[in-house]
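ok so i was messing around last nite and threw this chain in just to see what happens. nothing serious, just curious
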Amino acid sequence: MRPTRLGDAEIEYSMTAVKGWSRAGNTITKTFAFASFLDGIAWLQKVAAAAERLNHHPDLDIRYNKITATLSTHDAGGLTKHDFDLAGEMDGLAR
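result:
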């Protein structure tokens, strides 16, 4: 079943639950900073497991100890509950 794209009001409400994320059109983005490259990669391995479990995969850009995650549900053409679920998981794993 295809996920349902959220409307602007639902997105704005969902943004209040994910601190530090910013919206750019049909995506949400956040840059995570780590003490070292290997700390970032260790976090990324946990994110990969969560993404597989949720069957929702982020776009990731790794720059030494900073990893930028961009989320959108491509087959829905925008943001869905899946994006905010994964954003919350990523935040939790970064703590």
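not much to say yet. The chain is about 40% helix and 20% strand.
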